[in-house]
Amino acid sequence: MSHWLAQPQRRWVGVILCWCVVFIALATAPRLQAGGGPVIPRYVSKALIASDTGDCSNAAQPCRTIQYAIGQSWPGDTIYLSWNGSFAAPSYTFYEHVTINWSLNIVGQPVPIRNTYIAIDGGGPGGIIPPGRVITVTASVTSVNISNVSIQNGHAGQNGGGLYIAGGQVTLTNVIVQNNLLAAQDGAGIYLNAGGLTLDHVKVRENSTGGTGGGVYSAGTLTVTDSAVMSNTANMGGGLSLHGPATVTNVTLNGNSASGSQGGAFHTIGYNTKVHLQNVTIAGNTSQYDGAAGAIDTGSQVVLNHCTIANNSAGSAYTSGLISSAAVTLTNTLILGTGSYSTCSGAITSGGHNLGNDNSCHLTATNDLTTTIPLIGSLEHNGGATQTLALLPGSPAIDHADSSGPATDQRGVARQDGNLDGVSIPDIGAYEYIPLHVYLPLILR
Ligand SMILES: [Ca+2]
């Protein structure tokens, strides 16, 4: 009996069926970078039971390395870095060089216990793995969120010692970026090449390079909130090196140093770059080179509202506060220089209600105070997420600002009536003075 299809036709049907099977198999197989897969939690631990087998989705059988778990993940997955369970050694370190190629959430667990944390460590000089960058985020990501970890001891021979971001939107929450080291490249702590970076409740501290940007080098869009940039060093831009737009709110930059020039706390480059600072404290930063600004050196449009700039220093005899070669606007800002040289130099416009210790900051607008002693305390924890410089009783900054700023100060304290005259008026600077209320005892009749 002959088949209803001739031999050549049967061969073609077979080929088509085979391709259909292949197509269906491809369409239904997990595609790691194509997106659209189910969001699955992945677990990584270095407890004894952990091993790099399976897909890391079973919390009772975690994987051992972050990079293996990333290889198992789908875009949008969350990778949990678990605690090892020991109260004797609650801090926990993953020694790895991690590359993130697609959108992910990486969460350290638990939330830090008494100042301990889970760390991702790049090996550093003399570390237990060869030194390298800690985390690389490639340009193919859309969104990466990293929380509750320390990114530390990166030691790369390229830009970005702790974290390099090629593109996408990256958010760090409750993260410490510390002790990352470069020889002469840029962005010892973090290098943002393009895209956006948000830092929320982040400490960027003690990162160092002989290049530019000790804490963060940003060529993208940078947003910093409720965070501290402290004790970083670089040749230029000790704390921050800003080459793109930035919004900095409720932040302290302190103890950063530029060994060459251009800004102990931060510098900006690019006239069309706009940088906004609000409720920001800039204290104790240094530039060691003559002709450089101890605190801020700007080549961009920088707008400061309710900032406190004090106790910064520069070279043997130069500007300790602010140098502007572009356009800076100061409003409700307290700026106090050190040494015998001027506090400010360059193009500065007053938006009013500022306080300066000399006449160099172009404070000629409504209600500006010049050659005024501000009466401030030293940098310390006064509440809120960051250290601040408190206004002392009787400070002329109290109740002398306007209401163009936010309703709260850097700590989250409401702007209020400081001299108890019944009128609520904000104070100059990042700190709002809380008056001592005296209640007379009730007289019983
Ligand atoms: Ca007030």
The CATH architecture assignment turns out to be 3 Solenoid
Tally of strands: 32
| SSE-based structural type | mainly beta
The level of helicity is under 10%
The best one-word shape is globular
Q: What Rg do the Cα atoms give?
A: 27 Å
Would you tell me which CATH topology applies?
Pectate Lyase C-like
Descriptive overview:
The structure is a single chain. This protein has a 26-stranded parallel β-sheet that branches. The radius of gyration is 27 Å and the shape is globular. The chain is mainly beta and 445 residues long. The protein has two helices and 32 strands. It is 7% helix and 35% strand. The model is unreliable at 1-6 and 12-35 (pLDDT under 50). Strand 1, helix 2 and strand 2 (78-81) form a beta-alpha-beta unit. The longest helix has 22 residues, at 7-28. The chain has a single domain, classed as 3 Solenoid (Pectate Lyase C-like). The structure holds calcium ion. The site of calcium ion (CA) has 10 residues, from loops.
Write the layout of secondary structure elements.
Layout (H helix, E strand, L loop, with lengths): L6 H22 L12 E4 L21 H7 L5 E4 L10 E4 L2 E3 L3 E5 L9 E4 L13 E3 L5 E5 L1 E4 L10 E3 L3 E10 L11 E3 L3 E10 L10 E3 L2 E10 L2 E4 L3 E3 L3 E9 L2 E5 L4 E3 L5 E10 L2 E2 L8 E3 L2 E5 L2 E3 L2 E2 L7 E10 L2 E2 L8 E9 L2 E2 L19 E5 L7 E4 L54
Parallel strand pairs: 1-2, 2-5, 3-6, 4-7, 5-8, 6-9, 7-10, 8-11, 9-11, 10-12, 11-13, 12-14, 13-15, 14-17, 15-18, 16-19, 17-20, 18-21, 19-22, 20-23, 21-24, 21-25, 22-26, 23-27, 24-27, 25-28, 27-29, 28-30
Antiparallel strand pairs: 31-32
This protein binds calcium ion (CA).
